[in-house]
Amino acid sequence: MHFLKKPWFIPTLFTLIILTVGGFFIGSLINKKEPIAADDIRSRLESMYGGTVDRISLAGGVYKAEMTRGGADYSAEIDATTGSVLSLFQTGEVKKEIPNILSEAKVKEIIAGKYSGIAERISLNTSGKTPVYEVKMKKDPKFTNLTIDAIGGKIISETVKETTGKNALITQEQAIKIALGQIKREIVDEVDDFSYVKTDDGGYYLIEIDTKDNREATFQIHAISGKIMTVSWAGD
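User: That's the sequence. What structure does it adopt?
Assistant: Structure tokens below.
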């Protein structure tokens, strides 16, 4: 190891270290990939997911994009050098704007011109191809469910149900009270529907109750004895 004592050894060693480190640094600069252009990332996302990219930005080697697809908003993160999608998640629904839709006041005018009774509920349903108003009208001892075109005002369907039978000893209000007594008060949302079904032994009530946890309970209650004949649950 006599060469360690040579006066030229230390300067030579430092020179080699500097050259090695410099070589690695220059090599990393040469091999470093440039980020893919934002327009190319936009095109890739729209091609992959069939949506529309509204905004895109680059930070820390990652593109962040906001896009709309299938009536919903999404947020995505993409590796800027490889183009790989790192994450994609839905951020919200897009509300559909329906032009020329009738107001509830206009629907009430249409109903008043053709029906007597009280409109207990009017709700707009836009889930189908054509938006419709669903109307529940009450006139003792019957109620009528109507489906009305929300743009043209045409009555599409009409369903009439009896609410009380001639021989019933239990009233509609009593039957509803019996059904509500079977569910914890704090989770009850509303009585969604009720009807009377005529049978040879006095008939029965069908009562549908919605709960706050998105379920629906249907009770079948005998119209003379008040006995709960069946209970069924549907929903989440």
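The chain has a mean pLDDT of 81.
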